[in-house]
């Protein structure tokens, strides 16, 4: 497994997101039930400590789960095969996308204008 450091960093990132999510969910729930966030030793709040503990537990769980590790390894292996275009090709492709977008926007605006005029004539004429 030559992607070991990338796998560990990915799993740490996932565990960090889990911890942030738990902390973010804990505060509104505590506020809804009018429970204060208790400080532990004037250093850290209980919700932060819980988030850290759950983050570490989730990292250890993901790190021991072979399916998660294999999926992450395969993902990094595939990402190494991704071709990244050079500056010249990127500028050319961006120009084409902007040009096509402007053309479609113009055609839709023209189509909208024509049909607005047609419906104005047929639907709102005074007899």
Question: What can you see in these coordinates?
Answer:
A two-stranded antiparallel sheet has the order 1-2. The model has no long low-confidence stretch (mean pLDDT 91). The radius of gyration is 28 Å and the shape is flat. Helix content is 78%, strand content 3%. It folds into two domains: 4-79, no CATH class; 85-127. The chain has helices at 4-32, 46-64, 66-79, 87-123; strands spanning 39-40, 44-45. By secondary structure, the chain is mainly alpha-helical.
- The oligomeric state of the chains shown is single chain
Let me know the largest β-sheet.
2 strands, antiparallel
Number of domains: 2
- How widely separated are the two ends? 81 Å
Per DSSP, the total helix count is 4
Low-confidence stretches: none
Percent of residues in helices: over 70%
- Rg on CA atoms, Å: 28 Å
Strand order across the largest sheet: 1-2
Strand-residue proportion = under 5%
Order of helices and strands: HEEHHH
Number of strands: 2
Q: How would the blueprint of this fold be written?
A:
Blueprint lengths: L3 H29 L6 E2 L3 E2 H19 L1 H14 L7 H37 L4
Helix pairs in contact: 1-2, 1-3
Summarize the structure.
With 127 residues, the chain is mainly α.
Features:
single chain; 3% strand; 2 strands; 4 helices; two-stranded antiparallel sheet; 127 residues; mainly alpha
């Amino acid at each position: 497994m030559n992607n070991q450091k990338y796998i560990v960093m990915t799993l740490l990132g996932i565990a960090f997101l889990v911890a942030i999510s738990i902390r973010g969910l804990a505060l509104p729930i505590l506020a809804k039930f009018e429970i204060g966030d208790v400080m532990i030793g004037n250093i850290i709040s209980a919700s932060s400590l819980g988030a850290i503990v759950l983050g570490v537990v989730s990292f250890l769980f993901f790190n021991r789960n072979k399916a998660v590790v294999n999926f992450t390894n395969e993902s990094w292996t595939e990402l190494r095969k991704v071709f990244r275009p050079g500056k010249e090709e990127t500028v050319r492709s961006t120009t084409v996308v902007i040009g096509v977008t402007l053309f479609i926007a113009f055609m839709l605006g023209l189509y909208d204008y024509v049909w607005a005029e047609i419906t104005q004539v047929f639907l709102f004429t005074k007899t």
